[in-house]
Amino acid sequence: MAVCVAVIAKENYPLYIRSAPTENELKFHYMVHTSLDVVDEKISAMGKALVDQRELYLGLLYPTEDYKVYGYVTNSKVKFVMVVDSSNTALRDNEIRSMFRKLHNSYTDVMCNPFYNPGDRIQSRWALFAVHALFLQGLPC
Amino acid sequence: IMELCGATRLGYFGRSQFYIALKLVAVAQSGFPLRVESINTVKDLPLPRFVASKNEQESRHAASYSSDSENQGSYSGVIPPPPGRGQVKKGSISHDTVQPRTTADPQEPASPVVSPQQSPPTSPHTWRKHNRHPSGGNSERPLAGPGPFWSPFGEAQSGGSAGDAVWSGHSPPPPQENWVSFADTPPTSTLLTMHPASAQDQTTVRTVASATTANEIRRQSSSYDDPWKITDEQRQYYVNQFKTIQPDLNGFIPGSAAKEFFTKSKLPILELSHIWELSDFDKDGALTLDEFCAAFHLVVARKNGYDLPEKLPESLMPKLIDLEDSADVGDQPGEVGYSGSPAEAPPSKSPSMPSLNQTWPELNQSSEDTAIVHPVPIRMTPSKIHMQEMELKRTGSDHTNPTSPLLVKPSDLSEENKINSSVKFASGNTVGQQQAGVVAHPPAVPPRPQPSQAPGPVVHRPVDADGLITHTSTSPQQIPEQPNFADFSQFEVFAASNVNEEQDDEAEKHPEVLLVEKASDPASSLRVAKTDSKIEEKTATSAPANVSKGTTPLAPPPKPVRRRLKSEDELRPEVDEHTQKTGVLAAVLASQPSIPRSIGKDKKAIQASIRRNKETNTVLARLNSELQQQLKDVLEERISLEVQLEQLRPFSHL
């Protein structure tokens, strides 16, 4: 159900970005880019010490007529941005949270790989699989 | 031939199929009967004669098969990395990685016949140690067969065709061998019998320059049968390497250390990253021994030119406790069904590798699979385990491998039973009888039987039931079957308890009981003497020392109730005992069914509990016998008192 998933590094460059194949990728890339401003705004607004899981999940960043953009930030300031189609049955907040949680787990698995240098583009196939699952059914398997 | 090599089944010629087919062609042309075994057994076949020139390589392959059969056993002979190479010229086989390597190889046209990649273990050197000496490197391995074969072959082919280069490439295997060696040898050893593929390994080794050859060797080394199966040699080599990094075999290799180690293999980081993802099963950033072996095996396979699978092949999966036995089984069968397996392996592999950049042949993937076997499977065979278990049982050690029980055959079971009986006690006939019945049943593995048995003993010893149950579960388990696994432990418990009660009921009920009964037999035998009068009537076979009235009846689990009924019927007088026993049995049985499930996870705990149970069993058995004795004494006293009463009665009337 998500049409685009992006993992943004701390320095605000993308580590991994993937859109549903049928969509116009450029548009989504642009949306993700603009949403980063909103993310930064929310992060700074949160203030100090947000180690809470709830705080990791930023919620709806901004809605457009067709899509909704959700954000999630990790403790190391790595941001996950997800664009979902508004036309889909409105995904409940919990579903979005679980999707982000799974995305976070996949990201952790990628990090655990000693051959992965943080800051590199994520080329792990496993991570891709998980993300693909997100696209297919809205929840990674 | 197509059918034999599995291509018909698969619908296409994977590498292994191709090699097998070539070999079979040679066999057929030599006039040998065309059978699956002929591939391995017929050696020194003349190269198959093909009309097309390109068949040179094929024939070489075929030849290599025959020649290699000696050396390379381990390496999946069938998987012909060389073909890839040979085809480089033709451009048929598209090993991207291989090709560059093969091209490098042609430079060494007649390199000395490379010694079989043998035994990586022998050359456990760090990666690429031997890169530089082609002929020397191989010297470690027994070139014997393949070597001589190759050289003539190489000479014959001196055409310098890609094939030759490929073959010759083998000679400089050292670099590969170093790294590959470990890959090769293990696989070759196992494959020796299976496929001449080992020859292929050699050829691949030769053709490929250090890097390439290493990869090829790796591929070849991977046993053909199960592309990802790890041969024993390989596994041993991996274990040794693991020890160099982490002396504690049960410990972990941290990610950083593993990264350094695997970086030495000179594989691209992306591939190493993928291998890591495949092998780090629990995603903890550290490698256990099994994970390490899987990773190592994948690296070896990759170096040999096999594509990495998309997901971890089954044979490489770190064995969960339960799977161990199955894994072992898998290893062995792998070789056996090599002809079939290659066919199967490639299909599995190829789909998995679609995304791989390299166009490694499907075989690569499969070969890798064959080479890498579950770490677990290597474990002892069931039979061995059984014996061990039997002994352990005596000591209350618990079944070592839940999996092994699976492998253990009924025969083992019977052996164990015998052993158990002898070890435990001088079990009487009853035990034997029971055991016989048990032996027959063990394969059945029915948790139910245990309940029936359990009910008997359970009834008698409620207190012990728990302990016994655990013990029995462990001890009986030695019997290979897992389902029985649980049962056995119960039986033992019961056996102990049964001794008091009635062993025959139990014996009849389940083979599992057999084990238990064995334990119980000794006790029962003791009691038998005492309680013969009482029990013998009921249980002809088992000298049910159901005396255990005194024994605390085991907490009768609901399940055993069924058995209880049976036993009760038989032991009429000992109804109580029966109930107790059945209760115990039931408890044991109940516990047993659950045991197998958790076995995988808590093997050790189970084994420990088995030991405890066994100990409890023995204690209970002794207690049982003592109580029976007391009972007898008391009965005698009663009788004497009654007699006196009778005598005195006339006086009372007076």
From TrEMBL, chain A:
<dbReference type="GO" id="GO:0005829">
    <property type="term" value="C:cytosol"/>
</dbReference>
<comment type="similarity">
    <text>Belongs to the TRAPP small subunits family. Sedlin subfamily.</text>
</comment>
<keyword id="KW-0256">Endoplasmic reticulum</keyword>
<dbReference type="GO" id="GO:0005783">
    <property type="term" value="C:endoplasmic reticulum"/>
</dbReference>
<dbReference type="GO" id="GO:0030008">
    <property type="term" value="C:TRAPP complex"/>
</dbReference>
<dbReference type="InterPro" id="IPR006722">
    <property type="entry name" value="Sedlin"/>
</dbReference>
<keyword id="KW-0813">Transport</keyword>
<dbReference type="Pfam" id="PF04628">
    <property type="entry name" value="Sedlin_N"/>
</dbReference>
<dbReference type="GO" id="GO:0005794">
    <property type="term" value="C:Golgi apparatus"/>
</dbReference>
<protein>
    <recommendedName>
        <fullName>Trafficking protein particle complex subunit 2-like protein</fullName>
    </recommendedName>
</protein>
<dbReference type="GO" id="GO:0006888">
    <property type="term" value="P:endoplasmic reticulum to Golgi vesicle-mediated transport"/>
</dbReference>
<keyword id="KW-0333">Golgi apparatus</keyword>
<dbReference type="GO" id="GO:0048471">
    <property type="term" value="C:perinuclear region of cytoplasm"/>
</dbReference>
<keyword id="KW-0963">Cytoplasm</keyword>
<dbReference type="InterPro" id="IPR011012">
    <property type="entry name" value="Longin-like_dom_sf"/>
</dbReference>
<keyword id="KW-0931">ER-Golgi transport</keyword>
<dbReference type="InterPro" id="IPR044760">
    <property type="entry name" value="TRAPPC2L"/>
</dbReference>
Automatic annotation (TrEMBL), chain B:
<feature type="region of interest" description="Disordered">
    <location>
        <begin position="326"/>
        <end position="361"/>
    </location>
</feature>
<dbReference type="GO" id="GO:0005509">
    <property type="term" value="F:calcium ion binding"/>
</dbReference>
<feature type="compositionally biased region" description="Polar residues">
    <location>
        <begin position="540"/>
        <end position="551"/>
    </location>
</feature>
<feature type="compositionally biased region" description="Basic and acidic residues">
    <location>
        <begin position="529"/>
        <end position="539"/>
    </location>
</feature>
<feature type="domain" description="EH">
    <location>
        <begin position="234"/>
        <end position="318"/>
    </location>
</feature>
<keyword id="KW-0479">Metal-binding</keyword>
<dbReference type="GO" id="GO:0005737">
    <property type="term" value="C:cytoplasm"/>
</dbReference>
<feature type="compositionally biased region" description="Polar residues">
    <location>
        <begin position="94"/>
        <end position="105"/>
    </location>
</feature>
<feature type="compositionally biased region" description="Low complexity">
    <location>
        <begin position="433"/>
        <end position="442"/>
    </location>
</feature>
<dbReference type="GO" id="GO:0006897">
    <property type="term" value="P:endocytosis"/>
</dbReference>
<keyword id="KW-0175">Coiled coil</keyword>
<feature type="region of interest" description="Disordered">
    <location>
        <begin position="520"/>
        <end position="579"/>
    </location>
</feature>
<feature type="compositionally biased region" description="Basic and acidic residues">
    <location>
        <begin position="566"/>
        <end position="579"/>
    </location>
</feature>
<keyword id="KW-0106">Calcium</keyword>
<feature type="compositionally biased region" description="Pro residues">
    <location>
        <begin position="443"/>
        <end position="454"/>
    </location>
</feature>
<feature type="compositionally biased region" description="Polar residues">
    <location>
        <begin position="64"/>
        <end position="75"/>
    </location>
</feature>
<feature type="domain" description="EF-hand">
    <location>
        <begin position="267"/>
        <end position="302"/>
    </location>
</feature>
<feature type="region of interest" description="Disordered">
    <location>
        <begin position="54"/>
        <end position="178"/>
    </location>
</feature>
<dbReference type="GO" id="GO:0005886">
    <property type="term" value="C:plasma membrane"/>
</dbReference>
<feature type="compositionally biased region" description="Low complexity">
    <location>
        <begin position="106"/>
        <end position="117"/>
    </location>
</feature>
<feature type="compositionally biased region" description="Polar residues">
    <location>
        <begin position="470"/>
        <end position="481"/>
    </location>
</feature>
<feature type="region of interest" description="Disordered">
    <location>
        <begin position="430"/>
        <end position="482"/>
    </location>
</feature>
